[in-house]
Each structure stands twice: as C-alpha cells, then as structure tokens.
Amino acid sequence: MKRTVLTAVVIVLSCASCNRAAPVSGAGGKPTVALVLKTLNHPFFVDMRRGAQEAADRLGVTLQVQAAEREIDVEKQMQIVENMIQTGIQALAITPSGSREIVSALVKARDAKVPIVVVDTRLDPKAAADAGVHGETFVGSDNYEGGKLAGEYLVKATGGKARVGILEGIPGHETGDSRLRGFRDAVKGAAGVAIVASQPANWERDQGFNVFQNMLQAHPEIDSVFACSDLMALGAIEAIRAAGKTGAIKVVGFDALDDAKKAIAAGSMEASVAQFPAEMGRAAIESAVKVIHGEKLPDEIKVKLELVTRDNVK
Amino acid sequence: MNRARRFGTVIGLVVLCAILWILTPYFLTVSNLLNIAEQTSINAIVAVGMTFVILSGGIDLSVGSIVALAGVVLGLALRDGQPLALALALTLAAGLVCGLVNGLLVSLGGLPPFIVTLGTMSIARGAALLVTEGRPISGFAASFRVLATGRVGFVPAPVIATAVVYLAAHVALAGTTFGRYVYAIGGNEEATRLSGVAVRFHKTMIYGVSGLMSAIAAVILTARLNSAQPIAGMMYELDAIAATVIGGTSLMGGDGTLAGTLVGALIMGVLRNGLNLLGVSSFLQQIVIGGVIVVAVLLDTVLKRNRM
After folding, report:
1. How large is the greatest C-alpha to C-alpha distance in chain A, in angstroms?
2. Cβ neighbours of residue A16 closer than 8 Å, sequence gap 6 or more
3. CATH number of the domain that B209 lies in?
4. Do A196 and A252 sit in the same domain of this protein?
5. Is residue A205 part of a domain?
6. Contact yes or no for A165/A257 (Cβ under 8 A)
7. Which residues in chain A have their CB less than 8 angstroms from residue B42's CB?
8. Range of the domain at A222
9. B292 and A7: CB-CB below 8 Å?
10. Higher pLDDT residue, A111 or A14?
C-alpha cells in the first residue's frame, strides 16, 4: 500500500511540475506539432529545439519535444513516435535515429494520417519507398556538401600534400557516411593527398581521443585529420597535445561547436563545417505548420553550411 | 507476506493507470493500451530470463548484447535467403549457446556471475559488431516482419508471444523440479548441493534460459525495426533488472515471482508511455523512472525487515 501511495506521489509531483504544456490540442484550438529528436544531450539538438520553440511560439502552435535518452536508441524513438501519435498530434517533425529503422514507426504515423517532416538525417530512400512512407519535405544541410567543403579546404590548406587520418561516426549512419563520401570525393582529385587511416570513433569525444592516439602510433606520418564531428575532433586534438604535436597536425571537424570555435581561435584546430541547427528547427516547424494548412512543400529545404576558419571565427 | 507484496505491485500499477487516466484523455484507449503492451513485450521477455537468474542468486549483464548478437545472426540468415524456420532456429540456438557459456563459466568456472556476464556482455557486443562490420542489416520480407506487425484479432503478435513465453516460463518455474531448484539454489546454494541436487547443471541451465529469452526478444526487436542492429539492446540489462526488482524479486535470490516481473515491466512501460503522453521533459522522465525503481526496492527492503 505504501508503494502505491509513493508511486502516486511521484507521478503527481512530476506532472504538477511540468505539465503546463499538456498535449491537448483542444487547448485554445492550437494545433500540436511533435518534434522527436535523436537526443537532447547534444548541443546540436538543444539548438534545434530552441529554433523550433521560437517558430512554434511565433506561429501559435503547441510544440511537444521528446527524445530518447541515447542518440542511437531507435527502438525508444519508435516508442516515442507511437506514443505521440496516440495524443492526436497534427504533424510530426523527426530527426531519425536510424534512416531505415525509423520507417517502421513512420508507417504508423502515415496510417494515423499524421504528416511527417524529416529533419537533419534523411530516410533511407529504398526502405521508405518499400514501406510507402514519404516525408512531406526534408529539412537539413547537405552532409555530402559539407564533407566536400572540408575536403576542398584541407587540400588548399596543405598545398595539396597531406597524409590524412579520418575519424568516422557510427558506421551505417547516413549523416556520417555522407560527410565521409563528400570528403573522400573532394580529396580524390589531389594526387598528393593520401588517406592513410580511417576508423570509427562513434561520434564520441573520448573515443576520438583513443582512436586517434592509436592511429598516430600506427601512422606517425599523419599530418591532417578529418573528423566527421567536432566532438571526435576535440578528442583528437587532446591526443595530438598528448603526443606533443600541437600545430604539426591540421584538424578539420564538423558542426562548429563552441569548443571547436575556441580551438580554432586558439590555433589548435584548423577549421570546422558549421551547420545551423536552430535554423533547421525553425524551418521544420514552419514546414509542419504549412502542411497542416494544406500547403504544398518543396521536396527539400536546404539549410546553409559554412566553413569556420581562423579568419571568420567569432 | 509474499502474496501481499505481489498484490501491492498490482495495486501500484492500477493506481498509476488511474492517475494517467485522470490526467490525459489519450491514456485509456484500446489503441494506447495495445500500444503499451506491444512496447513492453521486449523488456518483459528479457526480464523472464533475468528473473530466473536473479531468483538463483545471480545476475546477467549480457542480455542486451545477446539480443544484439542473436538479432544479427537472424539478420544474416534471412539476408542469405535461409528459410524462416531455420533462421529462427539458428537465432534461438545462438542465444541459448551464449547463455550456456555464461552458465558454464559461473558453475564450472566458479566465477562471480557479475564478472562473467560483464565479460560476455562485451564479447557478444563485439562479435555482433565484427560480423556486421558495424552496419545494420535491414529490409526483410513481410512474412518475417509479421512477427512484430501482425495481429491476431486485434492483439499485436508480440503481445501473444509474451503471453506464451510467460505461460511456459511460469509452468517451468512453478510446476517442475527445475523451477524448485531455481528457488532452492537462490535460497541456499550450499544446502541445495548437500541435499544431492546437481547445482552446477541447473545453474548452467538457468543462464541458458536467460540467453534463450534474449534471443526471443531479438526476433521481435528485429521484426519491429525491420533491421538487425549490432548496437541494439544497449542497457536492456538494466531495464530487465529494474522490471524484475520492481516486481518484488529479491536481488539476494530465492524469493520472487514471474507475475511480479510482468507487472514490473508493465509499470515501466505504462510510466514511459504516460510521461510521453503528458509531454513530460525527457530528462524528467529519467528521474521519475529512476525514482520508481528506488522506491520499489526501498519498500521491498522495509517489508522484509518487518518480517524478520
């Protein structure tokens, strides 16, 4: 019995403290849009949420933001989508944790006639086509273009002569794979640039450190790094510092996180490809609202990319 | 006493549901309840194995990794065009073998279960990543996916699977000598051994059951996601332990029921679903779920102390 009471207390407290934004779409007749993110423990998605909230407030819609505890937990993300559908949301904006896996959840959204806006990470075209799922639009930066931007910059910065080590994201994830393809295509043309090692560090800072430290042991000739995300790049920078090679190895990252910008200003990092997640969040909610109002959307809404270097870092 | 505590867990679930029913109109609908049952099925099945292991006084940290490895075996077999029955048999065999290896290391090797399964957690995960090169295997035939997407009447297939698993496991635990030995080993292993029970054999089997349950969960997960991910199932061990403990099974072994575990898994599923429906912040959800686990164990301990 005591357990009962305590459980009740926990629930009531949790709801009392945070239930201002109950997803009841009837509240004032405001439509509800759900934004399901990969995670909320990464600055990228926190910024995206901020942009989305601003747009929602401006356009007068109720925004429900939910995310799995862990970025790669696509089953949990699927559960969130299923649960949000139960609340009668009018539109779903989602950054898929798995380009193929999430399609199973989106089938349920489609069956419930909830329009889908895909953000940041594309759906696997084949999986989506097989399941008959289609997003109203895709809002995001072109990761392939971003990788290419990084590659072209590195070729220029090294005068076309480089021994490159690459830190990859989690294998099989569309975002990292596209960045990698873009980078490889950009350096392919430069005869003096060779990729001597390419290993996954799973998007994480500590793994970036360890993997790059090992890479440097095996390939001491490495003079340039491309990391598919800044967290991994920042890990590599620490490994470079530990090896006493700061300044001798050029590091190019992706995301332009605050820490990376500081490293660029301090000279321990060369460049980073900036995305604009707040812009993505804003465009995602604007698109969702347009869909609710029956407007047609373009297949893709591209959000700009920008290379941050010492010359333009703020 | 035991019955009273189990009853308490059920009351906890009912009160939780009643509160959610009051707070949100979306909770008590047929479609949402089926939704919860479907979402709970994977954790509930893994928790069956965990309950056997914890009842015997052990712990199994490798279940999540075995889910991933068994899922990968299934994905590879299906991709290679093996018939469904063979692919399923291979999957269950993979899970069973992993579990038996755990069991042998614990019983014959005499190693602490925590250490053994910590090791196999890493080994199974690594093996799953190795054979797939880290990439998910996806895109299966509808004849396989029906295991997760199909419905019998209006009941989702994973819910049926869960019911069958619980019935079979309940019979094994409550109606066979094997089941009695699970409790006996957890209650007093030395006394059980001295009374002539083949403790090593039964302990090995207990971990085998856990591996098998992980493999069954892997089948549902793979069909549900239409993808076998080598990174699937992370932290499932903690969810399964939580369901078992909330359900009133003692971590000291020898005391607990499968019905309690099922209720424990449902409490977690209802809680997650309800917090989603209410639009509670993801961060706060973790605090609430953690709080419920701690409160459940606290009550369990207090009730035990009073009994003594």
Report:
1. 75
2. none
3. 1.10.3470
4. yes
5. yes
6. no
7. 75
8. 143-274
9. yes
10. A111
Backbone angles phi, psi at A131, to 5 degrees: -90, -5
Domain encompassing residue B196: 30-307
- Are A307 and A273 a contacting pair, CB within 8 Å? yes
Say if A1 falls within a structural domain. no
pLDDT digits (tens, 9 = 90+) for A207-266: 999 999 999 999 999 999 999 999 999 999 999 999 999 889 999 999 998 899 999 999
- Whether residue A239 lies inside any domain: the answer is yes
C-alpha torsion B101→B103→B105→B108, nearest 10: -120
Q: Does B103 reside within a domain?
A: yes
Q: Is residue A3 one of the residues assigned to a domain?
A: no
Distance from CA of B201 to the nearest CA of A (A): 36
**Do A118 and A207 sit in the same domain of this protein?**
no
**What is the pTM assigned to this prediction?**
0.83
Record: contact B279-A11, CB cut-off 8 A: no
Q: Span A199-204, mean pLDDT?
A: 90
pLDDT of residue B274: 92
| Whole-number pLDDT of residue B115 | 97
**What CATH number did the domain enclosing A63 receive?**
3.40.50.2300
Counting the structural domains of chain A, the total is 2
Cβ atoms of A100 and B226 within 8 Å: the answer is yes
Above 80 in pLDDT, residue A290? yes
B-contacting residues in A 110-149 (Cβ below 8 Å): 124, 126-127, 130-131
Residue A27 has pLDDT above 90, yes or no: no
In sequence order, the 6+-apart residues with CB closer than 8 A to the CB of A139 are A93, A117, A118, A119, A120, A280, A283, A284, A287, A300, A301, A303
User: Taking CB atoms and an 8 Å cutoff, what residues of chain A touch B302?
Assistant: 2
Cross-chain CB nearest to A130 (options B19, B139, B291): B139
Highest mean pLDDT among A64-78, A174-188, B50-64: B50-64
